[in-house]
Amino acid sequence: MIAVARRAALAVLLAALLAAASARAGTPYIIVASTTSTEQSGLFGHLLPAFTKASGIAVRVVAVGTGQALKIGERGDCDVVFVHDKPSELKFVADGFGVERHEVMYNDFVLVGPAADPAKVAGGRDIVAAFRKIAAAKAPFVSRGDDSGTDKAEKRIWKAAGIDVKPVSGTWYRDTGSGMGPTLNTAAAMDGYTLSDRGTWLSFQNRRDLKIVVEGDKRLFNQYGVMLVNPARHPAVKQALGRRFIDWLVSPQGQHTIASYKINGQQLFFPNASDSS
Amino acid sequence: MSDLAQASAVALALIFRLDGDLLRIVRLSLGVSLTAVAIAGVISLPLGAALAVYGFRGRRPVIVILNALMGLPPVVVGLVVYLLLSRSGPLGMLGLLFTPAAMVVAQTVLVTPIVTVLVWRAVSGPWTAYGDALLVDGASRLRAIPELLAMSGAGLLTALLAGFGRAIAEVGAIIIVGGNIAGVTRTMTTDIALETSKGNLPLALALGIILIALSVGVSAAAFLLANWRTRP
Predict the structure, then answer these.
(1) Least crowded by CB within 10 Å, which of A100, A171, B8, B95?
(2) In the listed set A220, A243, A267, which residue is the last one of a domain according to the structure?
(3) Chain B residues with beta carbon closer than 8 angstroms to that of A8
(4) What total of structural domains would you count in chain A?
(5) Phi/psi-derived region of residue A96, left when phi > 0, alpha when psi is between -120 and 50, beta in every other case
(6) Boundaries of domain holding A172
(7) In contact, B209 and B11? CB cutoff 8 Å
(8) Does B230 touch chain A (CB under 8 A)?
(9) How far apart are the first and last CA of chain B?
(10) How many beta-carbon pairs below 8 A join chains A and B?
(11) Chain B residues within 8 A of A40 when measuring between CB atoms
């Protein structure tokens, strides 16, 4: 019994080592820390195979919130960071963690809420006014609370509305500390409002009674940027491969591929690399 | 109930289609968890037996600590392994972060205390009963360990299966150190978390059903193997 177990264990170990070795010998790859919105909206599933086909470089995506993605980049654990919070991206570059920031594309945030609309905000275009109404009605609002790009955008809107959500957290304001999908699941289950990026919303499948209640405010603009992790700080960064990925994203071919991604005929991301200075 | 029925239908469809992505994810899940249990076994079998055989001072505190470590929170283990394997961490030059090897490391840490304690439990009975006999010919305690393990077969199997159960079911540690990268470090549990995030609940539950079936399969295979070996 022991002998068999030991032999089996050895075989498994060898198989695992072999698998690891063969994976390492395969195609060159880069690691991209990015956001849940780009991964879960299906954009990467559409975009990355096109890049790999054009370049022979595989892209391994670690999809987390923008805050965490930037942290992974700070520690040198990825080659490229592809996120959506311009102020923290600019700080990332200014602090010397990233180089060569390029704007890639944009979409927008939408306020989603229950069809019953207890705060009576549906159809409005002023997002700040809508947030004030939700607070006044004490209607359930579900927050990401995870320092992601969407979370930071939401916090900026509360600030603009002059509402401090800290003291009401746990009452009508519910901080889930989770990704966009889980937050939408929670909002759907408790008939709450939440701010979502449009990409994740369009690809999200468990909407129940949720629908878009406010959209179109220019303060809901959502810009995505890409940066190479600073190779001077982290020598292990695959700078040549990472640069090729960034160059391809902002190239006409990359931009066209982004524009061609649609769900039910609706375009999710709008390329705007040529706009950036 | 209709949710469960729908999920079962999705699960069956996935299995009968021999879905390529699913096969890869299943293979990775089994590969990572079985490797972690194998490594934990290599450490835990002698260690657990030694705990029974040697009556050293400080044995009780060691056992108390090991018992406590059985409840190690996976997310904490994931975080610590992440910091160790990060490029900015002490083992960063190995480049293991976001690879299956990193997941094996994390699961080995989680599983080893469980297997060690259960091995110790399994051999304690036989040691009380036959310990004197094993040492009677002046054999050293070290020499007694393999014989003691050999007579504790079924209990050791349970120990290893408990370790496997912990490994295959856990998501907190491997999602941090593996990164849930499609085709590279995406396992059954991280995929279930992802599909739940997407709101694709039938697919998430279907994957859950397949995962449970896999666990049953591994457990059944282990018992068949044990029976087959002990048959005269």
Answers:
(1) A171
(2) A220
(3) 38
(4) 2
(5) left
(6) 108-220
(7) yes
(8) yes
(9) 47
(10) 106
(11) 194, 197-198
User: For position A191, which CATH number holds?
Assistant: 3.40.190.10
Q: What is the number of structural domains in chain B?
A: 1
Q: Do residue A50 and residue A128 come from a single domain?
A: no
Check B180 against A62: CB less than 8 A apart: yes
Regarding whether A122 and A98 lie in a shared domain, the answer is no
Q: Are B162 and B64 in contact (CB under 8 A)?
A: no
Query: Does the beta-carbon distance from B34 to A12 stay under 8 Å?
Result: yes
The length of chain A, given as a count of residues: 277
A184/B101 touch (CB, cutoff 8 Å), yes or no: no
pLDDT tens by residue, B162-191:
999 999 999 999 999 999 999 999 999 999
CB A80 within 8 A of CB A227: yes
Encode pLDDT of A50-82 as tens digits: 999 999 999 999 999 999 999 999 999 999 999
Final residue of a structural domain among A220, A241, A257: A220
Instruction: State pLDDT tens for residues B92-141.
Output: 999 999 999 999 999 999 999 999 999 999 999 999 999 888 888 777 88
Q: Distance, in angstroms, between A275 CA and closest chain B CA?
A: 31
A176 shares a domain with A112: yes
The verdict on A16 and A102 lying in the same domain is yes
Of B104, B199, B226, the CB nearest to A184: B199
Q: Does B196 touch chain A (CB under 8 A)?
A: yes
A70 and A120 belong to one structural domain: no
Q: A256 and A123 in one domain?
A: no
Same domain, A96 and A227: yes
Enumerate residues 133 to 162 of chain B having a beta carbon within 8 A of any beta carbon in chain A: 146, 149-150, 153, 156-157, 160
DSSP symbol at B1: -
Nearest residue to A240 via CA among A100, A105, A73, A61: A100
A100 & A56 share domain: yes
DSSP character string of chain A:
-HHHHHHHHHHHHHHHHHHHHHHHHSS-EEEEEEEHHHHHTTHHHHHHHHHHHHHS-EEEEEEE-HHHHHHHHHTT--SEEEES-HHHHHHHHHTTSEEEEEEEEEEEEEEEEETT-TT--TT---HHHHHHHHHHHT--EEE--S--HHHHHHHHHHHHTT---TTTBTTTEEE--S-HHHHHHHHHHHT-BEEEEHHHHHH----TTEEEEE---GGGEEEEEEEEE-TTT-TTS-HHHHHHHHHHHHSHHHHHHHHT-EETTEE--EE-GGG--
Cα first-last separation, chain A: 69
Please determine, for residue B223, whether its predicted confidence score (pLDDT) is greater than 90: no
Give me the CATH number covering residue B118: 1.10.3720.10
pTM: 0.86
Give the highest mean pLDDT range of B150-154, B198-202, B209-213: B209-213
